[in-house]
From TrEMBL, chains A, B:
The keyword Glycoprotein does not apply. This is Metal-dependent carboxypeptidase. GO terms for biological process: proteolysis. SUPFAM superfamilies: Metalloproteases ('zincins'), catalytic domain. Belongs to the peptidase M32 family. Keywords: Carboxypeptidase, Hydrolase, Metal-binding, Metalloprotease, Protease, Zinc. Binds 1 zinc ion per subunit. GO terms for molecular function: metallocarboxypeptidase activity; zinc ion binding. The active site is at 269 (proton donor/acceptor). Its cofactor is Zn(2+). Zn(2+) binds at residues 268, 272, 298.
């Protein structure tokens, strides 16, 4: 390998500075959702806009283009997953996307999506789709423009997807979702026809907020979230914000009469947080210090929330502690009954409340509809009708209003078209990674029963976290599991879980 | 008046942007002291350094110098306290100070003061002045250099003072402090010889933290702190951070066995906060939207904490509420006894715990010693001896160690030489302003007895807050009270309070 050119180091220094400034916006964004006094929101908007503008100026500086051009012939000699090659690959991808979009377009998008979030909120509250419809139309128009500007070879949706899941294609996701659906739908049907309804009464007892917090924090700590490098706070909409090395913050919301919301929310966000906390800090500010994709990020949260957190061995360890913490609420409930309660399958209207099996149908529905709207096959005005019809077919239920239907999610109002599939990709990757972990690490259930999660966490760090964006998602998947992404591990996992619970087969 | 040149608006826009970026650092600084996970401190240091650098680049941009030069002849025609004239006067002051100091000097100062705060902390903990001495020497050397670079006509201390109290002079402060001292020392002696010791037992009872918070927040709200445009949080070292319009945050610390710490701390910080919240938001980012000086800022905190918060009429209103909130702790204590307890005068070692009378002696001591160290009349190595000797003369007590002596305050380790006198200036201004308010508003005590603070708050806003830096402190004082700053109102206030409490005369 020829010596590393000085222009590479210069490029990296520039990007680090832009990321550092971006991380300041990360703090302000977290603060906005946790602490900002109501009258401070105009100032916060101005602060965020200034930081965004300054950061954008840094990442689209012509100097970056020049350095990338300079380094082209040098990087061509490197192996494709060498540190510098991977960094340059991803820097080029973001840079080209960023410079393609004219400033006026970016500003228009920011303006429309800011207004449209407010209108979506109002429409949702009023259960009146028409309030939101003209804004959705504007967003779709802008996203079509964006796809055209960014460019694509096959499907305009690819251009949008690329922002969240670099390297993924609409065709490939369509294929794997179709295969998933083909086995998932009969599984859910079998569950519904089993005649068994699992009781969730134990989850709806008395769970004082402060004790939930104590219990949730202890569990998050035990699976590996480092509270010396992070925090847990309360917000209406839970999230994880990886601000930078040593500072990753998660949030949750407590319902004093329902156990799942905070606890599985905390495990979920802690899963995201463990990924952020175990990125390689020496690469902070460059692609190698950043998460691979939203799908891979979601695989980490789903893995800890579901694959681990809703497993029987996990509760072998935690149920006695739960009983200690909430003695009267859990009194007389067996570990088996508790395990059944947290795993009940029940088609329902709201995605974020869905169980592990039906959740993916919610995603497939959105994935199909947003493609149709982008191409124009579906008009925005026809969305409620199309949603309800498709929902009836898939879930056997008709949403009584659009709040429980096509107005439930914020994503489209934020311009996040192409975002939804990453949730089910996360479930698929989680299952495939967990299968590989079980093959390579042996008796993980024994670990969980003993409250020991360090081996799994270390394996995830070695296999995924520490690489940052060195490998694209599909390469990572191949390296870890020896196979491309498939629906099979998730189906096998769901079948193994629900067959005994619902007396199937 | 000739038309406002476009270069004026351009200059203001540039400064607003720099202030907006500075306000982002304000959020990060607040977060650092309230929420930052321990492992995030390196990242936070890097973020703060970047924001400081970018802001410094903005405020020292040659464009600002050019605009100032351009506008010189135009501004000469304006009345000196016209909006634009005042803005340009203060912009010029900061700009000239900022560009005079070479970058290398600023960086060296930042480096030394960062290290030296750590060494001060260690020295204080170990009660070992020698650990801190070489750092104090370096700081003094740098501050002498700073004074020389910035320039002064009379005393090098003037150049440092100017940063905190623009327009004030060492000679003038020396004079007013001397006059104050001449009457204060005999007053304190008379109190000590009165043979009366006021009991503070009631303050040291059981005050649960959550109830203290509730009580303190209610009082802060009642005097006029707007919690829709601010917050109250907990920190080891209480402070007020005015981030910008609509966002001003105060902190306190709770001692469950001592009432004063949190309650009077909250009133104090709320006083600062009310100033910040009532600056003119349309001038945000320019001198007219910023507080006049540290002395004037402190006058607002002291006024609410002491002049109002430790007054008998205030407790006519609040004592019944206190008794309701802490029934067993306050049971059997009369309002008079409570009022006496919160006003006990007692010479003591620690400035921040001092009563209203002896507090100012703590400041005079520091003001004298830091001048002597700056000029070289006092060597850093001789500080502990000089401190203890002077302390004995002034307070009749000898500090048993340097933690209770010359190592108690953080200011010198931060390079804050010239900062201390603003505390007593605050007390002096508070008394003089309050005297004027009583003259102009009539029966304020009647307001306080009724729990009504709106008239006083509005008067302070009209007289002080809304002007920002339109007037320098001494002009403001003259406008409000018709006289230059004097020791008399403070002495008259202290005599009126302590004569009955200690049966003097």
């Amino acid at each position: 390998m020829t010596m590393r050119p000085a222009s590479y180091d210069g490029l990296i220094a520039q990007l680090r500075e832009a990321s550092l400034l971006g991380s300041c916006a990360g703090v302000l964004g977290w603060d906005e959702r946790t602490n900002l006094p109501p009258k401070g929101s105009e100032l916060r908007g101005n602060q965020m806009a200034l930081l965004a503008r300054l950061t954008h100026e840094m990442v689209t500086s012509p100097k970056i283009g020049e350095a990338l051009a300079d380094l082209e012939s040098w990087v061509a000699q490197l192996p494709p997953d060498a540190e510098e090659a991977a960094n340059l690959r991803e820097i080029r991808r973001s840079y080209e996307r960023a410079v393609k979009l004219p400033n006026a377009f970016v500003e228009e998008m920011a303006r429309v999506t800011t207004r449209s979030q407010g209108m979506w909120q109002q429409a949702r509250q009023e259960k009146n789709f028409q309030t939101f419809q003209p804004w959705l139309e504007q967003i779709l128009k802008l996203k079509r423009e964006e796809a055209a500007i960014v460019g694509y070879s096959d499907h305009p949706y690819d251009a949008l997807l690329d922002e969240y899941e670099p390297g993924a294609s609409t065709a490939q996701i369509t294929q794997v979702f179709r295969e998933l659906s083909a086995e998932l739908v009969p599984l859910i049907a079998a569950i519904q026809q089993s005649g068994i309804t699992l009781s969730t009464d134990v989850l709806e007892g008395d769970y004082p907020t402060d004790l939930q917090q104590q219990f949730g924090m202890a569990a998050a700590k035990q699976i590996g979230f480092d509270f010396d490098a992070g925090r847990l706070d309360v917000t209406t909409h839970p999230f994880c914000s990886g601000i930078g090395p040593g500072d990753c913050r998660i949030t949750t919301r407590y319902n004093p009469r329902f156990f799942n919301e905070a606890f599985f929310g905390i495990l979920h966000e802690a899963g995201h947080g463990i990924y952020e906390q175990n990125l390689d800090a020496t690469h902070f500010g460059t692609p190698l210090g950043q998460a691979t994709s939203l799908g891979i990020h979601e695989s980490q949260s789903r893995l800890w929330e579901n694959q681990v957190g809703r497993s029987r061995p996990f509760w072998d360890h935690f149920f006695p502690k739960l009983r200690q913490m909430f003695p009267s609420t859990v009194a007389g409930v067996s570990p088996d009954a508790f395990y059944a309660a947290i795993n009940r399958v029940q088609p329902s209207f709201i995605r974020v409340e869905a169980d592990e099996a039906t959740y993916n149908l919610h995603i497939i529905l959105r994935f199909e509809l947003e493609q149709a709207m982008l191409t124009g096959d579906l008009q925005a005005s026809d969305l409620p009708g199309a949603w309800n019809e498709r929902f009836r077919t898939m879930f056997g239920l008709t949403p009584p209003d659009d709040k429980l239907g096509c107005l439930q999610d914020i994503h489209w109002s934020m311009g996040g078209i192409g975002y939804f599939p990453t949730y089910t990709l996360g479930n698929l990757y989680a299952a495939q990674f967990m299968e590989a972990a079980r093959e390579q690490l042996g008796d993980l259930d024994g670990d969980f029963r003993a409250g020991e999660f360090g081996r799994l966490k270390q394996w995830l760090t070695d296999s995924i976290h520490r690489h940052g964006q060195r490998y694209r998602a599909e390469t990572l998947c191949q390296r870890i599991s020896g196979r491309p992404l498939s629906h099979r591990p998730l189906i096998a996992y769901l079948q193994a879980k629900f067959t005994p619970l619902y007396g199937l087969r």
